[in-house]
Design a protein that fits this description.
Length: 379
């Protein structure tokens, strides 16, 4: 007999809910039972738009409902801390939009509250759950790990390990000791009035909104935090619309971060080792009309084109594309993310059971810590 679905309630009715509510509704083992807004009319409109039975006025009322097992917090970043703590107090599991909060202190308090309440917490950073990301991790195992970081403690089903087909592929190359990581995320989009990304008090600015992805990739690749950071920003009306940062780590690895609201669309990264470099031009989300892919450039000049195993259809790994393919990625990273959270919710968290969510918590906390450090370093 199949277990009962996990019933999600949604806090917030903004544009960001459109995609993920549909993903919650289409993920096996999940359903959406209610959506809440501070305005009853807005809640009713959102519920009708998404085919959700219950429209709730007020976030407190949704947290008190017996037909809600978990919440998706889709509020501005300035409200994530408050409503995560409230959800923990109500015994609800949590999927929280990114950036997780306004500071590392807030993130730490949120994670501590979830652990004390024995509820599962996951930030909605979907690219971490794509099959391709675990392929990156397999390749990075050929780099020299930091013995005191999460990289050395990787276990199956965790962020820094994977025992699936994506990880079992014979590489035929080595990345070698890590030398440099670059990540850039931007888009050109004049925001409408009232968008929280233009309001500092709500958690606006390019660094928090887009820098979350770039900083997350740097932390993912290095498994560490830098010892020195230099940063600069272009400011408009008190909001950072473009940020650049350079950093150096204790092992002499370096990294650069770029993010902006006033630049053409970029979502790329390069992870450069002594023997090969991993390159990806869409790490946050595969381009809509292309399967997920990436490239490895060896020091010899040889180039490998890779797609994860589930994407192979007229494609050949390590030999490039053998036939034109125009279709979206088959690995649905949002559904993979939701499925992972559902699995955690159904996991006994007793002391003698591994807690795979801990490394995701570490990733979130150190990503926010890096953003705090960059913000403090801006000239």
């Amino acid at each position: 007999m199949s277990p009962l679905p996990i019933r999600f309630g949604v806090l917030g009715t903004g544009r960001i809910t459109r995609r993920l509510v549909a993903d919650l509704q289409s993920t096996p083992g999940a359903t959406v039972s209610a959506i809440a807004s501070r305005c009853a009319h807005r809640a009713r409109w959102a519920a009708d738009s998404h085919g959700i039975a219950a429209a709730v006025e007020g976030y407190e009322r949704l947290l008190s409902r017996d037909d809600v097992d978990a919440v998706y917090i889709a509020l501005p970043p300035s409200l994530h801390h408050e409503w995560t703590l409230a959800a923990c107090a109500a015994g609800k599991h949590i999927l929280c939009e990114k950036p997780v909060a306004l500071s590392a202190r807030e993130v730490s308090e949120m994670l501590d509250a979830a652990n004390r309440a024995d509820v599962r917490f996951l930030d909605a950073t979907a690219w971490l759950h794509h099959e391709r990301t675990f392929q990156f991790r397999q390749w990075l195992r050929t780099a020299t790990p930091q013995p005191d970081t999460a990289l050395a403690a990787a276990k199956p089903d965790e962020l820094f390990a994977d025992e699936s087909a994506a990880a079992s592929e014979s590489l035929g190359f080595r990345v070698g000791p890590l030398r440099h990581v670059s990540a850039a995320v931007s888009f050109l989009n004049p925001f409408q009035n009232g968008d929280h990304r233009l309001d500092r008090s709500l958690g606006g600015g390019a660094l928090l909104d887009l820098g979350w992805y770039a900083a997350g990739m740097i932390r993912f690749a290095t498994g560490d935090l830098p010892k020195r950071v230099y940063a600069t920003a272009v400011m408009r009306d008190g909001i950072d619309v473009r940020v650049s940062a350079t950093m150096r780590f204790a092992d002499e690895t370096t990294a650069t971060l770029s993010c902006g609201f006033d630049t053409s669309t970029r979502k790329w990264c390069e992870i450069a080792g002594a023997e090969a470099s991993i390159v990806c031009d869409d790490f946050t989300r595969p381009w809509a009309d292309k399967p997920a892919r990436s490239w490895v450039h060896e020091a010899s000049g040889k180039v490998h084109t890779f797609t994860p195993p589930s994407e192979l259809d007229g494609l050949t790994n390590s030999g490039g594309i053998t036939a034109p393919v125009s279709r979206p990625s088959r690995c649905h990273q949002e559904r993979e993310m939701i499925s992972r959270l559902i699995g955690w919710i159904r996991t006994d968290a007793s002391a003698d059971v591994e807690k795979p969510w801990q490394q995701f918590h570490d990733q979130a906390l150190q990503t926010q810590t890096l953003l705090d450090t960059i913000a403090a370093a801006i000239e």
